[in-house]
Specification:
The protein is an alpha/beta fold and 237 residues long. 31% of the residues lie in helices and 19% in strands. It contains 8 helices and 9 strands. The termini are close together. The protein binds ligand BJW.
Length: 237
C-alpha cells in the first residue's frame, strides 16, 4: 500500500442497514407484495405511477427519521485524511453519505431527494411527496415529475467518471452490496482485469455474488468492519 493510492469505494444497501434502512434482497427486502424488480422500472411508472410514487414517497419520508451510522462517518473521515484520491460510488439513493460529510460522491442510481421532469430532464430538489397531480415547475404539466432514480433498463449516472476511477484504482472496496445488479456488480471484475495488483477488499455480513474476487474480506456489520478498516489504514500513514 502507498499513501498515494487511489481508493475506489462502492457501497450498497448494507451500509445503511444499521441506520434503519432495509436492503433490497434480504428477508425484509420486499415492499408489500412487490419485488424491487417489479417497481423500479420505467414500465411500472408508465402503467402504475401511483404505486411507484408511493414506494418512493415512503422511502423519502423515512429518510427524515434516520441518521448516518459509524460506517458512513468512517468513509467521510477517510476522505478528509487520506493523502491520495478517494472516489466513493454509491448505489444507494439515500443521502447518508453526504450527511456524514463525504463530498467526492457519485450517486450512480440517483437520489430520493430529487425529482426530474420527464419532458425536459430538468432536475429539482424534492423533499416532499410526489403524485400524479404534482405540477412540474418547468413545463407546468401535472404528472410530468418522476423520482430522479435509475430504474432497471436505464443508464446509471456518472458512468464515465466511474470507469475512469476504476481504471486508476489501486484499491477497490466493496461494502454492503450483494453485487446482484449490473453494472455495479461488474466493477470488481473490471478493476481486476485492468489493475491486477489492486488491493481488493469486501465488507459484508454474508458472501456476495463476487466474494471470490476479494482476497481480503471483513465479515460483519459495516459499522464495525468499515470503521476498523479506515482506522487501520489511517494509522499506517
Ligand atoms: C450488510 C449489512 C451490514 C446487510 N453491513 N453488509 C441479466 C444479466 C445481467 C444484467 C442484466 C440482466 N438483465 C438486465 C440486466 C441489467 C440490470 C440488472 O442488473 N438486473 C439484475 C436484476 C440482473 N441492470 C440495469 O438495468 C441497470 N442499467 C443498466 O445495466 O444499463 C446498461 C449499462 C450496461 C453497462 C454499463 C452501463 C449501463 C440499472 C440498474 C438500476 C438499479 N436500480 C435499483 C432500484 C432503484 C433505486 C432504489 O429504488 O433504491 O437500485 S435496484 C436495487 O438494487 C437498487 C440498489 O442500488 C441495487 C443494488 O442492491 P444492493 O445495494 O446490492 O442491495 P442488496 O439488498 O442486493 O444487498 C445488500 C447487501 O448488504 C447484502 O450482500 C447483505 O449481505 C449486505 N448487508 N446488512 C454490511 N450491516
Amino acid at each position: 500500500m502507498s499513501k498515494n493510492d487511489h481508493i475506489v469505494v462502492l457501497t450498497g444497501a448494507g451500509i445503511s442497514v444499521e441506520s434503519g434502512l432495509d436492503t433490497f434482497r434480504g428477508n425484509f427486502g420486499l415492499w408489500g407484495q412487490h419485488k424491487v424488480e417489479d417497481i423500479a422500472t420505467p414500465e411500472a411508472f408508465a402503467t402504475q405511477p401511483e404505486l411507484v410514487h408511493k414506494f418512493y414517497n415512503q422511502r423519502r419520508q423515512q429518510l427524515k427519521k434516520v441518521q448516518p451510522n459509524p460506517a458512513h462517518v468512517a468513509l467521510a473521515t477517510l476522505e478528509k485524511n487520506w493523502p491520495g484520491k478517494i472516489t466513493l460510488i454509491t448505489q444507494n439513493v439515500d443521502d447518508l453519505h453526504e450527511r456524514a460529510g463525504s463530498t467526492q460522491l457519485i450517486h450512480m442510481h440517483g437520489k430520493l431527494s430529487e425529482a426530474r421532469c420527464i419532458q425536459s430532464g430538468t432536475v429539482f430538489p424534492c423533499e416532499e411527496n410526489l403524485d400524479t397531480d404534482s405540477l412540474c415547475e418547468c413545463c407546468q404539466v401535472k404528472g410530468n415529475l418522476r423520482p430522479n432514480i435509475v430504474w432497471f433498463g436505464e443508464y446509471p449516472f456518472g458512468m464515465s467518471e466511474i470507469f475512469t476511477a476504476l481504471d486508476q484504482a489501486d484499491q477497490f472496496w466493496s461494502i454492503g452490496t450483494s453485487a446482484h445488479v449490473y453494472p455495479a456488480g461488474g466493477f470488481a471484475q473490471h478493476v481486476l482485469m485492468n489493475r491486477k495488483d489492486a488491493r481488493m477488499i469486501e465488507c459484508n455480513t454474508e458472501n456476495s455474488q463476487i466474494s471470490h474476487l476479494f482476497p481480503e474480506r471483513h465479515e460483519g456489520p459495516a459499522s464495525q468492519t468499515v470503521t476498523k478498516l479506515v482506522d487501520s489504514i489511517l494509522e499506517e500513514l
